[in-house]
Amino acid sequence: MQRYIGIALLLSVVAAAADGPAVSYVGRSVAAVIDEFRDSGLPFAYSTNLVSSDLVVQAEPGAAEPLEIVKAILRPYGLSIRTDSGVHLVVRESSLEGRSGAEQVSRSESVPAADPMESVIVSASRYSISRDIAASKSSFDQRTIQNLPDIGEDPIRAAQHLPGAAASGASAVAHFRGGEAGDIGIMLNGQWLFDPFHIRDYQSIFSAIDARAIEGIEVYTGGFPVRYGDRMSGLILMDSIASEDSRHSEIGLSVFNTSLLTSGTSGNKSWLVSARRGNLDLVIKPSFGKPSYFDVFGEFAYEITPRTRVSFNALYADDAIELVLEVDPSERDQVTSDTRNAQFWLRLDSSWSESLSSTLVLSSVDYSNRRNGFANDAEKMVATVEDNREIQQVGFRQDWLWNPNDKHWTQWGISATVSDARYDYTGTADYFGIQAAYEDRPLSVNRSVTASPEGGSYAVYFSDRWRLTDNSTVEWGLRWDDQTYTGLSSDSQLSPRLSYLYRLHDKTHLRISVGRYYQSQPIQSLQVEDGVSNFWPAQRADHLVLGAQHLFTNEMSLRLELFYKDIGQVRPRFENLFDPLGLMPELQQDRVRLSPASARSRGVELSLDQRLGQFGWWASYTWSNVTDEIDGVDVRRSWDQKHAFQGGFDWQTERWNFSTAASVHTGWPTTELTLNDDGTVSPGARNAERHGNFASLDMRLSRTFDLPRGSLLAFFEVSNILNRRNECCLDWDFIDDANGEDTLERGQDHWMTLVPAIGILWEF
Question: Out of 212, 461, 679, 723, which could bridge 479 as a Cys pair, Cβ 3.0 to 4.6 Å?
Fold first, then answer.
């Protein structure tokens, strides 16, 4: 730990010697000028839908005060400033009288009002650090997500480009700084989303969130504030778009989905409806299945008074999935999965005074998942599975924010969720060939588990932030959580957290975040498929993050972060040693139970980004080490990647956009299999070996055309354009050697190869 602190102090000395800010404003981007004032402590907030990266200062402002300077550089673009609750908001001049402060402030972050000492902004650059007290926070706006060469323009996938994220590319789910995939919470319009993924029983390939329906995403990869709880590793926060037009519509068609979106405003009312249908069932061969799915999101908002706004939200996702891995009838491997996920919530934002505001969220979830599958390979495994799950939830959350002046900020809140779940699982398997040769493993499995847990989750939190001096700000907080559905006594959790920001000068900031984070086992995550019918105590993670950021005069941004995460009370989990992509992974013979005593994640992240007019680039490097302690030995977690590089660039004009993104990392750990003298097989030391290095280069090209009504965007993109065969899995089998005796054949399977896609989007 002393080594980490020493590096951070050394960086501070170097950064302190950097040149100060430039005096001239002409030719600089408007966003960069506003960011400078924000860095000096002034509470500016804006959306890049208004202040995009191509807006530049056209003339020297004839003013000395920062607020007047910003007004002057915004005026040529029909923009101005509205000050509300101590926050200077960038708005269209025509909307100064059309929106209440309660609406504008509350929608800038998934908390009751914009933080006057934090003033969240969504940066248009590829990878940018929000000016938050806590470390490890990044943002992507809608335009950036759309232009990233990602499969299906998925906003959740965009987070995989961040340093500290480990992802295969096949799944929309990632690992943040060594944590498990389930350690990440996803929030939309103030509501924690319940399992918002399509094809959830096979890698959760897509999220159920339409990127066109949201302003962007804010991502924490660690060190997040105390108001967010019951997650150990990360957060993805989203707000739906706020239409500036009386009516706006979009129709999209691509390889991945067909979409329809409409939004608008009328007086004190606004609405948004997004509907998408997956197209995979239309483009893949029928012999490999029929992955059919759709989702619908809607929001209707009503401004009751200038200080009170209510919104009704609904997200519905439906999957009817049939997947076939082996089409040969003698080896057929097939699973069907029907999932229905209905989530509804009401949000009430209230500004009680200039310094006090609140947000109330009432929610309901109705979820069901039915999975049926079979394998009919008489040389390996004959198996069946029936897995039925149903969950109902109702929830309540109340958040309060009090900011009496520009030096003090206090937030507190309470939440409660009551859940009722039902599980009914049956799985059978008979093993043959190499599957029957595993040492000390049964030749057949007959598993049946039912469970009906019910109960509540409760939380209370309080946080307080003070600007100690012009250059330093501190925030402390305390959170209490408890769950009653687990059947465990005395399992409540207390989470203290502390963050500190020190500004060396206008362009250099240091951040320290330290805290405890708990994550209970969600009621929908009972491990019945592996024969477990009880819940485990909440896991615990202690975070320490040291960060530094410097903004150069040429608008290049540099960030360095060192992180250390100590994980205790680790919940037992089940993994497949060789093949994580099986349709019924819980019945495969390479399935093992892991019961770590603890786990540890540590690393260093270095990232750079810059925008120069029409061109922008970004790059990051991460060194990390992620291990479990099992039987007194440190064992690599299966997503450990010692070295990881992310990078790319984009070129954009009024009509054209071209972007690339590259991902390179050390191959994930794997395990060898050994043939014993008695003809049995036994795995070697778990995760002692590695797959080959992973590398993928993605590309996207788009052009916008003007139409008599609206505009048309056409795009072409390719994932893994070099068609690299990145290793993911091992496939073992017996073959005869020259003497006719059994020997092991080691085969390899791979992550996704080259995936091209085309599409169009008509906006009118």
Answer: 461
- Secondary structure, 3-state, 393-429: EEEEEEEEEEEEECCEEEEEEEEEEEEEEEEEEEEEE
For 217, 242, 455, the CA distances from 130, given in Å and listed in that order, are 12, 21, 38
Residue in this structure with the two tokens 């191509």, named with its chain if needed: 54
Q: How far is CA 525 from CA 232, 452, 726, in A?
A: 16, 13, 30
* Residue matched to tokens 């400078």: 36
164 close to 624: Cβ distance less than 8 angstroms: yes
pTM: 0.85
Token pair belonging to 65: 């005060």
Residue 51 in 3-state DSSP? coil
Return phi, psi of residue 180, to 5°. Answer: -75, 160
Q: Beta 454-469 vs 257-266: how paired, if at all?
A: unpaired
DSSP 15: H
CA nearest to 413, candidates 399, 396, 402: 399
Amino acid code (one letter) for 269: K
Do the Cβ atoms of 599 and 624 come closer than 8 Å? no
What is the maximum span of the chain, computed from C-alpha positions, in angstroms?
Answer: 91
Containing structural domain, residue 578? 2-763
What is the helix (H) or strand (E) element at residue 473, kind and residue range? strand 472-483
Annotate 589-602 with DSSP letters as a single string. TTEEEE--SEEEEE
Distances 419 to 365, 367, 394, 404, 742 between C-alpha atoms, Å: 9, 11, 7, 38, 53
Q: Rounded CA gap, 24 and 42, in Å?
A: 19
Q: Which amino acid is at 645?
A: F
Asked whether the beta carbons of 583 and 373 are under 8 A apart, the reply is yes
Closest CA to 104 of 345, 315, 297, 265: 265
Q: How far is CA 307 from CA 53, 101, 112, 239, in A?
A: 32, 7, 12, 19
- Say what the pLDDT of residue 301 is: 96
Per the structure, the count of domains in the chain is 1
Query: Residues 660, 663, 665, CA angle at the centre, nearest 5°?
Result: 165
The predicted pLDDT at position 26 comes to: 81
Interior angle at CA 743, CA 740 and CA 748, nearest 5? 135
632-637: which pairs have CB atoms within 8 A and are 24 or more residues apart? 632/597, 634/600, 635/596, 635/686, 635/687, 636/669, 636/687, 637/178, 637/599, 637/669, 637/687
d(CA 368, CA 373): 17
Residue 66 in 3-state DSSP?
helix
- What are the residues facing 16 on neighbouring strands? none
Sign of CA dihedral 311, 195, 126, 116: positive
Residue 463 host element (H or E): strand 454-469
In whole angstroms, give the CA distance from residue 352 to residue 354: 7
**Residues β-bridged to residue 510:** 502, 548
Chain position carrying tokens 């070295």 = 643
Phi/psi at 328 (5° precision): -65, 125
Pairing relationship of beta strands 234-240 and 184-188 according to DSSP bridges: parallel
Contact between residue 214 and residue 241 where contact means Cβ atoms under 8 Å apart: yes
Strand partners, 563: 545, 603
Which residues in the chain show pLDDT less than 70? 1-23, 39-41, 48-49, 53, 84-87, 94-132
- At which residue do the structure tokens 């100064």 appear? 96
Residue 510 and residue 537 in contact, taking contact as beta carbons nearer than 8 Å:
no
Burial class (CB in 10 A: 0-12, 13-18, 19+), 523: buried
The three-state (H, E, C) secondary structure of 312-375, written as one string:
EEEEEEEEEEEEEEECCCCEEEEEEEEEEEEEEEEEEEEECCCCEEEEEEEEEEEEEEEEEEEE
pLDDT at residue 8 in the model: 37
Q: Which residues fall within 8 angstroms of residue 532, CB to CB, at 6 or more apart?
A: 449, 526, 572
Phi/psi at 71 (nearest 5 deg)? -60, -40
Q: What is the pLDDT of residue 106?
A: 35
Element (H, E) at 625: strand 615-630
